[in-house]
Write a structure and sequence with these properties.
Layout: E1 6-8, E2 11-13, E3 17-19, E4 60-63, E5 66-69, H1 78-92, E6 97-101, H2 106-116, E7 122-128, H3 145-156, E8 163-166, H4 174-183, E9 188-191, E10 195-197, E11 200-201, E12 206-207, E13 214-217, H5 222-235, E14 240-243, H6 249-258, E15 262-265, H7 267-271, H8 275-289
Parallel strand pairs: 3-15, 6-7, 7-8, 8-9, 9-14, 14-15
Antiparallel strand pairs: 1-2, 4-5, 5-13, 10-13, 11-12
Helix pairs in contact: 2-3, 3-4, 4-5, 5-6, 6-8
The structure holds succinic acid.
Succinic acid binds near residues 71, 73 and 193.
């Protein structure tokens, strides 16, 4: 029998598959269609201090092998997440979760992380400094090593939970940003968020998305994500949660060979709500096919 267990900063996950933030709500919404306790963990919808309605519509554009979103961090705000969403999730999901935090100022990130620190079910805080869909926040904190390090340092002062910094691929040198986060005390790296993209409607001759451009995700970005995870793995010692176009058990194995200790599945959930379930079910067979006894043994094995 193969061993799918992985370890993320001391948290034992029965398997490495985690639905990515923003593609699986607060998790409990999926409990009616399958037993979500088969998941390794769940990365919750990104949360800011205040409730946010998000960007104007249309916010989604389909592309070959992927989609563009410009949701704009729509969420009910940190108090509602703590008082309404997490209790609902706790009823149906019995494992630690990944809380995803966003913001428009360093103080806002710090405030939200300090609040979420009080929640027992939160095993990891994933700090999103890579949302490409908002002005004056999100990605603007993640495009330089200095600002990424500063926010990491400030957050580490207010929480004892493992802090994973979610990085953007829309930078010149993601390795230097990952290294700066590690140096500032990050416990792990989540990567990659979406790539900037746009579509133009041939009939209207205008951008499909109201916000003009958005974040491109889906199978088309998998090779980009893989190559970035591979490079960052060589530069840091902290664990990496790999993501970006993962849509099969084979992709999970490939991502782990590149250096990921666990894997988030994003756009695939929007195509098929059973995507994570199918990946988890297929994982043992794929491991057997490629003579893998334990997933922990293959982390970074592609490096020579
Ligand atoms: C969004 O809410 O616009 C997507 C979140 C992200 O890309 O980080």
């Amino acid at each position: 029998m193969v061993n799918t267990q992985v370890n993320l900063s001391g948290l034992k996950l029965s398997n490495p598959v985690i639905p990515a933030s923003g593609t699986f709500g607060f998790g409990y919404e999926f409990a009616d269609i399958y037993d979500i306790n088969i998941l390794g963990s769940i990365a919750l919808k990104g949360t800011t201090r205040e409730p946010r309605f998000g960007n104007p519509t249309p916010r989604i554009a389909e592309c070959t092998s992927g989609l563009i979103n410009s949701v704009g961090l729509q969420n009910p705000g940190i108090d509602s997440v703590i008082n309404a969403e997490l209790p609902k999730l706790k009823n149906v999901f019995k494992k630690p979760v990944v809380a995803n935090i966003s913001g428009f100022s360093t103080d806002e990130y710090v405030y939200c992380c300090e609040k979420i620190d009080s929640q027992d079910q939160v095993g990891i805080i994933e700090v999103n400094i890579s949302c490409p869909n908002v002005h004056g926040g999100g990605m603007s904190f993640g495009t330089s090593p200095e600002s990424a390090a500063e926010i990491t340092k400030r957050i580490k002062e207010v929480t004892a939970k493992p802090v994973y910094i979610k990085l953007s691929p829309n930078v010149t040198d993601i390795v230097s940003i990952a290294k700066a986060c590690e140096y500032a005390g990050a416990d792990g790296i989540s990567m990659i968020n979406t790539l900037m993209g746009m579509r133009i409607d041939l009939k209207t001759k205008k951008p499909v998305i109201a916000n003009k451009s958005g974040g491109f995700s889906g199978p088309a970005i998998f090779p980009v994500a893989l190559s970035m995870v591979y490079k960052v793995y060589e530069a840091v010692k902290i664990p990496i949660i790999g993501m970006g176009g993962v849509s099969s058990a084979e992709d999970v194995v490939e991502m782990m060979l590149a250096g990921a200790s666990a894997v988030e599945v994003g756009a695939a959930n929007l195509v098929d709500p059973y995507a994570c379930k199918n990946i988890i079910n297929n994982l043992p067979e794929v491991m057997e096919k490629y003579n893998i006894n334990s997933l922990e043994d293959i982390i970074g094995a592609a490096h020579i």
